[in-house]
Amino acid sequence: MPKYLWGIIGIYIFKRLFKHEKPLLFMIKKIIAILLALSMLFSVCACKREEKLNYEILGELVDGAGRTINVRSDAKDATIASVYFVAAPFFVALGLEDRVLAVNARNSFWTMASEGLGKAGTVGKATVDLEQLARYKPTALVHRSNDPETVAAVEKLGIDVICITVENAEDIIKTLDLLGTYFGAEERAKEAKDWFNGKIEMIDNIVSTIPMEKRKTAMLIGGEPGRVAGYDMMQSWMIEKAGGKSVIKEGENHNWINIGLEKVFSYNPEYIFCTSSAARNYTVDELLANPAWSAMTAVINKNIYDVPTKLDSWDMPGFSCVLGIMYMLHSMYPEYFSVSDLEDEVDDYYRFMFGRCFDKELELDWDNFK
Amino acid sequence: MASKRKISITIVLLTAVLVLLVVFSICLGKYPVSPKESLSILFRAATFKEQLADSMTVNVVLRLRLPRILVSIFVGAALSISGACYQSIFQNPLVSPDFLGVSSGACIGAAVAILLGLSSAFISGFAFIGGILAVLITASIPALIKNRSNIMLVLSGIIVGSLMSSILGFIKFVADPQTQLASITYWTMGDFSYASNADLLPMVIVLVPPMIILLLMSWWMDVLSMGQDEARTLGANVKLVRGVAIVCSTLLTAGSICFAGSIGWVGLIVPHFVRMLVGSSNRRVLPVSCLIGGIFMLVVDTLTRLIGAAEMPVSIMTGIIGAPFFCWLLFKKRNEIA
Fold first, then answer.
1. Rounded to a whole number, what is the distance in Å from the CA of B119 to chain A's nearest CA?
2. What 3-state class would DSSP assign to B18?
3. Do A313 and A306 form a contact (C-beta atoms < 8 A)?
4. What ipTM did this prediction achieve?
5. Given Cys at both, which of A129, A190, B72, B333 links B301, Cβ 3.0 to 4.6 Å?
6. Which of A256, A268, A281 sits opposite B123 (nearest CB)?
7. Could you tell me the fold of the domain covering A210-368?
8. Could you read off the pLDDT of B239-275 as tens digits, one per residue?
């Protein structure tokens, strides 16, 4: 029986019941009947209409959370929303900025550098504002992998969800493939992958020429000096990729892990990098001047560095990690990768992404670069 | 006389336990230093002799462990004495040092500083100011509605605490989820990791005078705890005693929070435990609370330093220990409560 007929039956019962003036017992029956009628009406209203798909399904993809998502025939027109800050650089790398309806560009750089992202609205910061998302009605929400509640809620709105995980180079390539295929930007995805792989290969070639005995120990510290990038974090992988030896052990792998100052002191790395992707309650100068740190090798040799830049973090999981790796490579082995090499690569990255460079906006003073 | 002797023995014993724990704690940590070496470094520093150990080890013992131990003792003592004082003044055993909104106000101050990207010194300063402001608001509500009774102050504390929690929630909501939010959350859980020798002097200046004042006026607080009318009959200036006690306790709480973040349970359970040991007179409760609070905080902080690969925030550990301990206390006092 069609669902709307239930609604009609409900209204009929409602009308019939109200024709009579009866004592309390009948009033209770009436109330129950009214409630039943209302519930039937609501169920009819709330029932999802069986929509006919106005696109074809061309195939299937597996996203970063291991979910299967359909590849649509209208991929080239698909619009995007996201609250996941890691996603924004991928939209730019894939040339999808103009299709982004809402984005959480966590700092002004992305909205300033990309016209498309600058025009985009927002559907929340950490959590998705579902009503606002429904108002934008994007084709897909690009989201983090560890939030199944949001995924389920957004899917109920009839919006696809693509989960991404970005913790190493392999993840970056997978994400480029995934988003490139879903949004019909396969060619640009290939260009981006080639660019990224080319840079990683170049870094590997340079690092392979550094003798093992010259390799430096290093760690990357986060919001507080005792909180470090865990073993499983991209930042630790970046140190290894740059030819360093990450001092963080395999068991220490809870994202930003608070190992404490004593542990930092016991590791005593030759190089310390300070993140630009987290709010920090210290500066490099404060660490260098702190008497408690005075015996640390990195302090004695003044090898504590801020990973650039304040606006566009080079140690954030994502495409720009290439610059972070190159920065670490230059800091630890300037004889193998000079400041002018770094300058050229930074220039190449921003030109590849945005078609121009941002030295002034990012306060990159190459003449006095440290 | 016998009671005086008993309390003196208790204080001496607790002081000895505290000293032993300090020695024990200074020998423990994740940086490999043998107890012998730790004690040698401590002894040489105390006697101004040249250190024999390498400078890294000396730094770990004297510049990381020692200030951390001292700060944790001071904070534990301050929170406990302030809790005992509040419980006595308001004649309410469920009152803790942060019930006038100090803790939530301090958290707002710290959160604002983190949001503005300020350094740790500013975060502490903002936390202190936030805590004091919250108490001023709490104190002004009874004045505004012209009812200055204890119960009104307690109720306005609840109002301000809730309001401050909502404001803190709003700050967390607008904070960057990937960067600032984590910092705010960690700060509110309490931590002694970054205590330094530079903290000790300001800490002594902020915490010691209110502690001494409270200890000196413990007799008057005993009088006050009999009830306001009885206290007036005995010649007490109720308003003054209550005011000074609240100001000192607030300073102790705000000062502790600004040095170590928000730490729960200590100010609630330690005074109860102390009353079980030495009775309910403030002349005994306050000094013993100081010592036991210091011991408790030191033990908790040493455990957080040692357990697991990552250092746990202090509040988690005080909660884990405090909740079952409070249950045990309630069990022991069940007849009294009934």
1. 5
2. helix
3. no
4. 0.77
5. B72
6. A281
7. Rossmann fold (3.40.50)
8. 899 899 999 999 999 999 988 988 989 999 999 999 9
